[in-house]
Amino acid sequence: MAMPGAAAPLADHAMELQRVAALLGGSRVLRHRLEGPLDAHEMLVQGLPGSALRHLVDNLRVLGKTASLEKAVGMSLRTFQRRSEAPTKPLNAEQSGRAWKFASILARATAVFGSQEEAEQWLERPAIGLDQRRPIDLLATPAGTELVEDFLQRLEYGVYA
Fold first, then answer.
1. Which of left, alpha, beta for 156 (phi over 0: left; psi -120 to 50: alpha)?
2. CB neighbours of 91 closer than 8 A, spacing ≥ 6?
3. Over the chain (161 residues), what is each successive 10-residue block's mean pLDDT?
4. pLDDT for 10
5. What angle do CA 127, 131, 132 make, to 5 degrees?
6. pLDDT on residue 1
7. What angle do CA 64, 23, 49 make, to 5 degrees?
């Protein structure tokens, strides 16, 4: 017997998956059909196309190509430029995972703040709930990324402490 409201979290998860995929260029760029988290996992193991990271970075409104963004996606500007010269060459699994995680956090922040521009501005500003650290800087490590995700969830549900 299904739990009442059990379909709602699944629908929310599928919608979030599609928002993340859209930031990376959607099915046209990703060349994968994402019906669930396992599809995303398999795609990341195979490696995102370099053009997915290019699409993400080219569609940033505030952040641009900064040192902070380099830390967040785990790739230097020079490496990013080299990858741009070979857009069909897949990123490795680590680079794919970092790009996906950044897109995931950006999608979540966009949902919380109402626009991608506001979300990017938030990523750049020191946050009281993160001990005055900028969320973008915390994305350089898995532990920092988890802090940002937890803080976004608290903001989403109106729990600031």
1. alpha
2. 47, 48, 49, 50, 52, 53, 83, 99
3. 50 83 93 88 93 89 74 79 78 92 95 94 93 94 95 86 53
4. 57
5. 45
6. 44
7. 90
Token code pair at residue 45: 């193991």
The whole-number pLDDT of residue 2 equals: 45
Residue 67: what pLDDT? Answer: 66
The reported pTM is 0.86
- Phi, psi for residue 90 in degrees, rounded to 5: -70, 150
Kindly provide the b/e burial profile for residues 49-63, where b requires at least 16 CB atoms within 10 angstroms of the residue's own CB.
Answer: bbbbbbbbbeebeeb
Task: Print the SS3 string covering the chain.
Answer: CCCCCCHHHHHHHHHHHHHHHHHCCHHHHHCCCCCCHHHHHHHHHHCCEHHHHHHHHHCCCCCCCCHHHHHHHCCCHHHHHHHHCCCCCECCHHHHHHHHHHHHHHHHHHHHHCCHHHHHHHHHCCEHHHCCECHHHHCCCHHHHHHHHHHHHHHHHCCCC
